[in-house]
Write the C-alpha cells for this entry.
Amino acid sequence: MRQVSSENLSLGLLNPEEKAQLKRRQRGGKLLYSLSLIPVILAVGLIGILLTTVFLDSFSWQVIELNNSGKAFKSSEANTWSAVIKADLAAQGQSQSEIEALFADKVELDKFAARNRVERVWLPKSIYGDEGGWRFILRNSRDKQVENLGLFEGRAELPRLASSLKDGQLLILHPWLNISFLNRNNSGKAWLAGLLTALVGSLWVIGLVIVISLPIGVGTAIYLEEYAAKNWFSQFIEVNLRNLAGVPSIVYGILGLYAFVRFLSFGPSILSAALTLSLLILPVIVIASREAIRSVPDSLRQASYGLGATKWQTVASVVLPNAVTGIVTGVILAVARALGETAPLLLVGGAGFVSQMPKNPLSSYSVLPTQIYSWIGAPDPSFDHVAAAGILVMMMLLIALYVVAFLSADALKNGNSLNDDF
C-alpha cells in the first residue's frame, strides 16, 4: 500500500478554501522566517567587518632608524629576549665583560628593559632577499620612526618606501600584538607601549566585582523567589530592580564617585571601581538568577518537601543545582558588561597612564577600556595600532571568560546528574 503522510492526510480532510488558507499561512510563515534571518545575517556580517578591521589595524608597515646597532637577527642567531640584547650589544662593540656586567646588575638591567624592547618583525624578502623574513630587532625610546602606514596602504607603497630607504633605516611589517606588548608597562612611545598594567588592573577589578556581586546577587534572587512574601514590598523591589538594570552606566559612575571615592574615602582605587561596577551589574545578576530559579519546576520542590527536606535543603540541593546554568549565564553577561565599561571608571579614577603595577585593592589602577580610550585619543597616529592590539586582547579575554564559565556550568550539571544517579 502507498504510504500517506500526515500532511497529505490533513490536506485531504480540508475543503478547497481551507487548503488555500493553509497554504497562504505556510507561505507567510516561510516569508517571516526569511525576513527574520536578515537582521541576524546583517549583525554577523557587521561583527565580521569590525573584527577584520581591528585585526588589520594591529599591523603596520614602518620605516625606522634604530638608535643601537641597527641589526636584525635571525632565530638561529638569537631567539630569546636576553640573547637578542646580548647580540645587539656585541654588534654595537661592547665587550663580553661589559655585557655580563649589565646582566649581573639587576637595577641597571631593569632600567635597560624599561627603555628597550625586543620586537619580532617581518622584513620583506622582495627588498632584503635572503636577509628578509621574520627577524628580531632591539628598539628603544630614541629610535626614529620615519614612516608608519596601514597594512594595505603600506603594501601598495612598498616600491616607493624601498627606493627612499637610507643607510641605517629598516622597512618592517610590525605586528603590534606580540609577547612584548603583553608583558610591558605603558609608555609615551607607541612602539614601547604595553598592556601589562591595564591587563592586571582589569583582572583585579573584575575579580573583586565577582567576589562582591555574585553572592549578593544570587542571595537576593533566592530570597525574593523562595522566601519573600508576595506582597507590595516584593513587587516594589522587582520593579526597581528592572528599572535599575536600564540606568545609564554614567549614573553609577557619579554614585561611585560620591559614595566610595569621597564619602567612604577609598579614593581613586581598585576597590572604588569594583564597588561601582558591582552596583552596575547587580540588577542584571538578580534578574537573571530569579528567572533561572523561577524556571525550576515546582514539582521538584514539592517532591523534596515530601521526602522531609527543609526549606534550605530544598533550595541548596534541588533548586540551585537545576538553576545553575541560567545563573552562570546571567553572571557571564553581567561580567562582560563590567569588563567593557569605560565611563563609570573614568569618573572613579581609572587612569589612562599608570606605570606601576597594582599591589592591593587600594592601589591606583588602569583597566583595558580606559587604556584603549587614552591610546585612541593620543596625538600620535601610531597609537591607533596600539589601541587595535588592545581591543583584540580585550576580546580574547572576554571569549576566555565565556569559555571558562560555560565549561564550569557544564561541569556542575554533569556533577549534579552523577549525584542524582547515586
